Amino acid sequence: MPEFLRALRFLTLEGRLRARQGGLPTLLLGMVVVTALYLPPADAAYLTLSVDGQRGAYDWAWVGLVTGVLGALAFSLSAFFLTGRAPQRDAASGTWALLAASPVSRLSLLAARAVTDTLLLWALWSVVLIGSVPVILARGETLGRPDLGALLLPGMLITFPVLALIAALGTLIDTVMPRARLGRGVAGVLLWTALVGVSLSTPAPVPDLLGVREPLRQATLALTGQAPQPFTLAASGVNVGVTTRAAPLTPRPWTGLTWTPADMAQRGWPLLLGAALVGVAALIDPRRGEGRRKRAARPGRAWRPWTLPAHPALRLTLLDLRAALLGAPRWLPVLAVTLGAAGLGVGANPTSPLLPLLLIAGVPVAARTVFQGRAAHTDPLLGTTAHAATLPLLRMGAATAALLLPATGALLALLPTRPDLSAALLASALLGAALLLTLRDLRVTDTASESLLFLAWYLGPFNHLGALDTLNPAHTPLILTLTAALTGLHALRQFGLPRRPEVPA
Question: Where are the transmembrane segments (predicted)?
């Protein structure tokens, strides 16, 4: 059989496996909600893309700009958790040896997986592009005849190459750390943050892999008549993300982006870089997907186990944290300590973007803490214990501790000078743990639905979700109220309905 047909068979197989993700309907519904969030009406209390508090009228060109820019920034974060993890699946099912012995080349196998992930991300983002059409008509700000070209072209030239790069980067991460799901999540968040930071905070001639720098410069010129030279997001007055709006809004007409042949050619750089990353992944030893060889036990010093607290609740909480970190890469605790030390500098600059990053970095550990009982199929057994009803609430406490661990330095630095901001940081961690617990109640456990969590984190603490800006001290009472409501609903679910104890077969 020719190599092309073998690769096509693997591509078809990977596509069928991706399509079987149980959370895809939930994710599609989430994408529809995201479409409405990206395009708020003129009288809404928040904006998603603005220049000095102004935005363009909702014609086809402006909506294409909004979806293109926010797709490259917001959806690319959740895309990390939709792609890859195929080596973990192969190692767990024991099919890696069969794949390694197959006649298809390793490069073709990895390329098929990267292409499948890319097509999945493109299909999901197409839902946003298609869903924006009725939103445009409902807002009633459009001028002239429908222009689908102006709507689709920014998304195709800005978002689609970025999603292809994210898919290739996920393939490389899976090859480097095939067994470390927790490490993969942390590495994805950090690499995404670095990619966004380099693209937005550096002027030309640094390559803009996200493709958002020139469109935002044109938007600044159109809405304000001036743009700083060299153009950087920090000095432009452009806000990308969901922020509150206090002044009355008068949408201004937007004629659309100007795409030169050079601009279009530059959008091929993410595709070329993605292909290079897949090529690098093919050079890595494929035996990394196999289980580690068991070494013979060597006589050594007998280490005493950690002393567990006598209180049952504290004991279960500590055991959950230890189980969540079991098998984690060795650099993960070092990274947490490094972030905690870096957080000491937040006291000098509380507006630094490091503060929301400290919260986001702990999300993979917190998610594993909350969901590990279901993933390990030990929930029926835990349901027979004396503390079965309170165990999820204890896991919420463990998840809060995991979220706060990287932010410990920031809490210590802000407590003497900004107790209000340190309280907001604590409330944000509590809300994050309550949201994780809510997702557990909704049986959201697969990668498709997990990506919604990181999209919510982007719209929340990372980019200020309107009145629910979790890092705004003025909103701390509202955040605590929402946390209490979610926790109360969970407690009602746990204690309100009589249940028979489940005994595993």
Answer: 21-40, 60-82, 119-138, 150-173, 185-206, 268-285, 392-415, 421-439
Which neighbouring-strand residues pair with 238? 51
Please report, for the chain, the start and end positions of each structural domain, with discontinuous segments joined by +: 3-289, 312-495
Q: What are 226-248's pLDDT values in tens digits?
A: 887 778 777 788 887 777 777 77
Residues 6+ apart with CB under 8 A from 461: 356, 359, 360, 428, 432, 469, 470, 471
Whole-model pTM? Answer: 0.70
> If 0-12 CB within 10 Å is exposed, 13-18 middle and 19+ buried, where does residue 405 land?
buried
Backbone torsion region of residue 494, taken as left when φ is above 0, otherwise alpha when ψ lies between -120 and 50, otherwise beta: alpha
> What is the distance between the alpha carbons of residues 315 and 368, in angstroms, rounded to a whole number?
18
Cα 160 to chain centroid distance, Å, stands at 17
The answer to whether residues 244 and 466 touch, using CB atoms and an 8 Å cutoff, is yes
Which sign, positive or negative, has the C-alpha torsion 134, 138, 143, 145? positive
Give me the chain's average pLDDT, please. 76
User: pLDDT (tens digit, 9 = 90+) per residue, 133-154?
Assistant: 888 888 888 767 788 888 899 8
Angle at 344 between CA 191 and CA 234, to 5 degrees: 55
Structure tokens at 72: 């490259």
SS3 assignment, position 252: strand
Smallest CA-to-CA distance from 143 within 220, 223, 222, 63 is with 63
